[in-house]
Amino acid sequence: MSSARVRTLATLRKALVGLETMGGPDAGRVALGHAEVDAMLRGGLARAAIHEVFAEGRFSSTATGFVAGLAQRVADHRTILWIRQDFAAREAGDLAMTGFAELGLDPRRIVVVFAKNAEMVLRIAADGVACRGVGVVIAEIWGETKAFDLVASRKLTLASSDSGVICLMLRLGASPRASTAETRWIVSSAPSPPVAEWEAWGEPVFDVQLVRNRHGATGRWIMKWACDECIFRESFSKQPTAHSQPLVTAPVDRPDQALAYARRQVG
Fold this sequence. Notes:
Blueprint: H1 3-21, E1 29-30, H2 35-40, E2 45-46, E3 50-55, H3 60-75, E4 79-85, H4 86-92, H5 97-103, E5 110-115, H6 118-129, E6 134-142, H7 150-163, E7 166-172, E8 183-189, E9 205-213, E10 219-226, E11 231-234, H8 256-266
Parallel strand pairs: 3-7, 3-8, 4-5, 4-6, 6-7
Antiparallel strand pairs: 1-2, 8-9, 9-10, 10-11
Helix pairs in contact: 6-7
């Protein structure tokens, strides 16, 4: 083996060893706003790393909203590069810019790129993460795929560590596998607490499981996204609560006697 190849292999080995020590307490982090989660993450979500978000069951839209919140926190008013596999759009629906605006994101800062398969998503993500002008890269891949393996995750982690750009892997319809991700989250929806009638549906609430944390413990929380503040908060609504507002209006095509008869039958 030539000396040049030996030096190259030695350099790569040192870089891979660095992956195991990267992201410690002194690394740059972004606070999410939820006190317990930030404490578990030693101050917030680590920069210069990749983070995985999985949807539990069919909660793909919930996981998408959670990733949007993370992106808003870490982008620092810079461009959000969102790379979607074509099949993800057909299966889960298109991204709604009006919905992002309601969550507090500026749609003008979101650049959406479509890719025909997972391999192309990863190639575009690697180029995006290498660009220091990008605030965050979101790589959305649908279903199980062999493309995102340890080699692919290491490439993204190395590129992220060099540029400082966070990469969020949004995995829909997939199960967690071995990777170099700094954190791994599994997200489902949770009921919003009761609000006034003029507030309509209330703020988004997530049931979030942190199942991988390379430099700390894991846990599970109910996290509320405060749309006006663009920050995650604690939420104490863990069980469904009956809503006080009427679900349906009184029938307008029936006589009053029919409604009175129904009430007597119930009584």
